[in-house]
Design a protein that fits this description.
By secondary structure, the protein is an alpha/beta fold. The chain folds into three domains: 262 residues, 2-enoyl-CoA Hydratase, Chain A, domain 1 (Alpha-Beta Complex); 189 residues, NAD(P)-binding Rossmann-like Domain (Rossmann fold, 3-Layer(aba) Sandwich); 187 residues, N-(1-d-carboxylethyl)-l-norvaline Dehydrogenase, domain 2 (Orthogonal Bundle), CATH 1.10.1040.50. The chain contains 29 helices and 20 strands. The longest helix has 21 residues. The two termini are 52 Å apart. The structure holds (S)-3-Hydroxyhexanoyl-CoA (3H9). The site of (S)-3-Hydroxyhexanoyl-CoA has 25 residues, from strand 6 and helix 3.
Amino acid sequence: MTDTRALNDNISIEQSGDIALICINNPPVNASGLLVRQGLMAAITDLNATAEVKVIAIYAAGRTFVAGADIKEFGKPPVEPFLPDVFNAIEASSIPVISILHGTALGGGFELALATHARIGIEGLKVGLPEVNLGLLPGAGGTQRLPRLAGMAFTMDMALGGKPVNGATALEAGAIDRLVSGDPRKVALSAAQEVIDGTLPTRPTGSLAVEADPDLLEATANKLRMKQPHLYSPHKIVEAVAASVKPLEEGLQIERAAFLSCMDTPQRAGLIHAFFGERAVSNIPEAKGDTRDIAKVGIIGGGTMGSGIATACLLAGLPVRMIEVAQDGLDRGLATVTNNLEGAVKRGKLTEAKKDAALAAFQPSLMMEDLSDVDLVIEAVFESMDVKRDIFGKLDVICKEGAILASNTSYLDINDIAACTKRPQDVLGLHFFSPAHVMRLLEIVQGKDTAPDVLASGFAFAKRLKKVGVLAQVCDGFIGNRIMNHYAKAVGYLVLDGASPAEVDQALEGFGLAMGPHKVGDLAGLDIGWANRKRTADQRDPADRYATPHADRICEQGWFGRKTGTGYYDYSGDRPVPNPAALAIIDEIRSELGITPQAFSAEEIVERYITAMIVEAVRVVEDGTAKRPVDVDMVFLFGYGFPRFRGGPLHEADQIGIDTLIARIERYGTEDPRYWQVPALLRKMQEDGETFAGLNRKG
Ligand code: 3H9
């Protein structure tokens, strides 16, 4: 006889004879929220008091086993029972408890399994400890129990890398006991029977010992100090894993203390903002609804951008037709695409067979007419409105009805481009970031006539390419480049007023940027910004002292950065060093402008840089170019290398505080009232006691 009873909305028990199954059902990912914790604790207590039960098997309904603690609860007052206590109760159960894992058993979900007395994986399983990605560490026994099953080195890799491994790897390491195929409930029943029959051994993980490995601990700690000096939780992970050689209870206490200290950091808040932000940007009405099928893509332009976009499409399994005006351009495009795909093979992202299939799906052509059968065209030629007008006029004639016509322009007006066609409803901007097959940001730019299904197709396309699509409205530079153009002026100002490019870079790298702005400029090519400044020269205000004339004069020497061997830095030696000739140009301009150089501390450099970025970011939200603050944040995390642990410029603005920001802008404004102005929205937020997190919640 089978008796099934629900303990609450998330946990039920199914008992047949001496076997009890506990089912976790908390869609979509069975996160171990309060009801799951309460239900599991009650189930283990009840079943231990039920005389006939000889084995307990825990499995989950739906697409996955538990994917971790409920992240939405973090930052709120914790409510008992806590996850570690629930897992300790499972391990202490006098009746053997086994777990059946399918889908993604991550974080607290994997830790739940580690506390049971045997683990059965189901084919397709992935297990992992991704807490480090959230600024945390496995805080429910992971750093103590996994070393007992799979060793310290495996645990360290998993907890520091944050990447899941597949079932076969977990089995080989000893993290799970078996890998089978089948339905989780049926596997739970048959595995439970095996425990009773004695063919599936069980034992508490805490009964096992860990082999000490002081060399590994020291080498890992040293590597982290070099590679991740800004991050807090990785160092705490090493500390916790090191404690796994101690008796379990002692180790668990050290882990708990380390976990709680991570929970208190702004990094945890920033990284969790990034986790939800990545999902929030496409959780908007514009991204939903009907879409058009995109089965074949046309790309106009075989330069770096066009080839990168083509690579991204091919990697997503989409056939691509690339159009160029001359054979040598097409040859270059093919060579770049091939090179990109080979790079993906080398990095282990692509198999040789898939690379060959991708190349077979790449069709270069010199005839625009060959775009007549594609579902989406992405124009990726250089930034000339005349050229783009000409192209879109031709596309209007050539492309089939319903084809989506996109421009990868970084700055230009999508409405002007759409006006060259008789189908402006089919036109939108799809702005990729270089290298386009690597960078995850895609700005999806809505024209005034863009049809809803075209916009939603842009989001579906981003998802297919595994990119983060962010909605932007038309303006010069959209969200990202518009903000960048503004704070780039503040960088120029810092340099002209006395900081050297290397000092600025160092200060901002200290803030967490992977590379300072001058190093980025040298890497990307200083000629790109120069061309853009020339394009907008007629819009320059002669009273603007931030027009970065030193950057122009450096470019006039033919110094474009790495590709010419010289830029802000000199690349002729083993390591780049500040270019003395560039410093001389800066000095020359300072004296032409009558500037007496002043010293800036690293702190001051960071303050001015981030404040300038926030000012324009606020304006972008104020005028609706970005829908919400979180959209700006995700643009900067996924397209501009803003440190993820800081959550984005407007998340950072909340940490700084609106009063402090306004005071700073007003103070800088006494030096230059033209550039430093407090945006009206910031003033209003101050009056209302509003935060950017609050604006995000309002949507
Ligand atoms: C932890 O476990 C700490 C412990 O060590 C110690 C505690 C004491 N909580 O990504 P998707 C939502 S830390 C709450 O689109 P997919 C997500 O926001 C945790 N919600 O699906 C989304 O909501 P919406 C360690 C969560 O199939 C929906 O579920 N675990 C959680 O592409 C679908 O998600 C992790 O870090 C959660 N834990 O990918 C795992 N997870 O529909 C984090 C997801 O409203 N999760 N949601 O936008 C993931 O990596 C992916 O979600 C997963 C599924 C691979 C599971």
